[in-house]
């Protein structure tokens, strides 16, 4: 479980939900407001959080959720945040399906170096099939789910090879002798695989944490296998204690099966806490958020999980429609969850859509109540920590100023940062360079 | 010539020249020091410069110049600098041969928005043939010179289409009505060309300057044509007044031939001024810089212009070798210049290599002397302005504190920033959205 509970903030601009931006307490241009991102990062750093996190996608239609239509690109905004923060980790989402490993390795290494070792990469394979339309002639077809994960595994392998291009003491920079680096400590990747052929070396050194931290959130079988093999931090948004505990146990078991120490794979949950001074106030905020959603919007939002399927064609008050194989190559885990839930509870389409659209969280109430819930999830091995998706700025502040002090009193969360890198915060060891290990081994 | 003289700084870490890092006055880790980049940007902003500029390349060998081996990636470092500066423009190099237009358009738009309209893109086609080895399986062959420029033209067309995805008043964000944007002000790129197929729309809005400014530095016939058609700012490093004047006249003529107002294509020169309180001190600094170069290093540096050709195989004191067609697909304009110079002056290989390696600039001397030279170049239409490649931090400071006040006294350079965007600084108009123009025209 690392050194203690993990806490991070997903900075999500004008909101993850289609209608969050209509709430009076959120600036409706938050997704493209540097001041908003900076403020959320500074509040999170004031709380001594482990990291801030920026999600991503690369395909929109007029039906997309407002935040998706117009938002900062993750690596640029996190690089800007690196300059106005000093300790908090910076986790950017980047697709292994629609990027080049050499370019990706560089950008993360650059963020890692300029932030003093605070970078993380949330590796995604891109669920939105339409993305291929924005990357045509080089990759004309959206690869299917299984291939995307094979690509992701190879992509990550290449990126990590490139991140080890230079041993940590390669750059001696001796002005007198004129020796800038030791040639035997420069290593080409020399990768030639199924999807990528990359020579190297990377043109940037490693950071104080060795390599950026790898995050992953795939919940499908392929996604879980990839995470168990490769990720440092894996996360899900399960919403319920039992589901979270199952996910936690499964991921730890998979890590062990992959030959790893299960403590080295941190399993965390994305939660959307609604904290206020009183329980009444918390539920009032929830009501305000729900009140912004119309059925039409809820249906469009539902469609996003099914590759922008048009749900307005069905009677909203008939049972949830039979969609055949729909969504099998989209955000697989979401589609399965929604369909399963609708069948289990015998929901109409309207009910399923509103259930999906309404903010629903067990982490609602007073600081004490939410701290209790957080502690319960942590203690019963449902999560090593949490990513807060607190769209309203006031909800993040209430968590930092209300819940975090209680977690500290209970010895569950740090008083101060103990180190300087994201790995330090997470209790993950410095990532040794594979070539340095080889060199040492050969001396024995 | 715009509103006045243009001044920018190329932040070049540990130095453009192979041995600059050995000079006592430069931090040898400058290429990966955020503090160094920040300091250079702040000094430039104190001087009210138009922009800072970061060059790039994506292929290294053990023979590469030290700065190339280990440096920040341009978009990440400039995004970080955006957060610690307030007015100065931020120009990043990105290759149209080894990037995706959708990803590139996003990153520049993101930098542009988060900086309040200060982004510029230096479009390069990538001269280093080895780069293909780092981007294998998607682009296995390094495209030849002419194809690279055809790609660049189409790439830029796509990027600019994507930058016009949203009209400036598309996002109304009316919380009451629930209207986030006006659908008729969202425009797909719908591009399907020789090299790229990109649907759009881009998932980020335009900035206060409309579109990022496009820089270009191709000196070949293809490069000049591309710049005349597409660039806002074109630059060269000619080193001599006559060559600069020829280049200036040629580019302005080409802009006119392309149907543009020649004032809309700014032609600037990269210079490496060596300014000190006295002439003696300036020449002493130049000597210090030359003293760090060995023949071996000079030959390796020369090789970089010839696709890493090994020049140590030749007798250094024999005439400059006949290289056949060598370099015809590399940094074409550099190879031509070096070969032509060596033949014209009957140089040995050693002489040609040391000529290339030694710091040579007409902009050397006291602040008054250098200001005179600057004024002469500007007045005689050799340049609309200058990019300073001042590797030693002290040389940038000497220019800002010594030369700039003189230029101001003479009315050649601004006292204060007159606007907030890079276009404002350069005297370039706000870039209208093509769709907004169409809408207006249809009303007439």
From TrEMBL, chains A, B:
<dbReference type="InterPro" id="IPR011251">
    <property type="entry name" value="Luciferase-like_dom"/>
</dbReference>
<dbReference type="GO" id="GO:0004497">
    <property type="term" value="F:monooxygenase activity"/>
</dbReference>
<comment type="similarity">
    <text>Belongs to the NtaA/SnaA/DszA monooxygenase family.</text>
</comment>
<feature type="binding site">
    <location>
        <position position="56"/>
    </location>
    <ligand>
        <name>FMN</name>
    </ligand>
</feature>
<dbReference type="InterPro" id="IPR051260">
    <property type="entry name" value="Diverse_substr_monoxygenases"/>
</dbReference>
<feature type="binding site">
    <location>
        <position position="149"/>
    </location>
    <ligand>
        <name>FMN</name>
    </ligand>
</feature>
<keyword id="KW-0285">Flavoprotein</keyword>
<dbReference type="InterPro" id="IPR036661">
    <property type="entry name" value="Luciferase-like_sf"/>
</dbReference>
<feature type="domain" description="Luciferase-like">
    <location>
        <begin position="23"/>
        <end position="382"/>
    </location>
</feature>
<feature type="binding site">
    <location>
        <position position="93"/>
    </location>
    <ligand>
        <name>FMN</name>
    </ligand>
</feature>
<protein>
    <submittedName>
        <fullName>Putative monooxygenase moxC</fullName>
        <ecNumber>1.14.-.-</ecNumber>
    </submittedName>
</protein>
<keyword id="KW-0560">Oxidoreductase</keyword>
<dbReference type="InterPro" id="IPR016215">
    <property type="entry name" value="NTA_MOA"/>
</dbReference>
<feature type="binding site">
    <location>
        <position position="145"/>
    </location>
    <ligand>
        <name>FMN</name>
    </ligand>
</feature>
<dbReference type="GO" id="GO:0016705">
    <property type="term" value="F:oxidoreductase activity, acting on paired donors, with incorporation or reduction of molecular oxygen"/>
</dbReference>
<keyword id="KW-0288">FMN</keyword>
<dbReference type="Pfam" id="PF00296">
    <property type="entry name" value="Bac_luciferase"/>
</dbReference>
<keyword id="KW-0503">Monooxygenase</keyword>
<feature type="binding site">
    <location>
        <position position="220"/>
    </location>
    <ligand>
        <name>FMN</name>
    </ligand>
</feature>
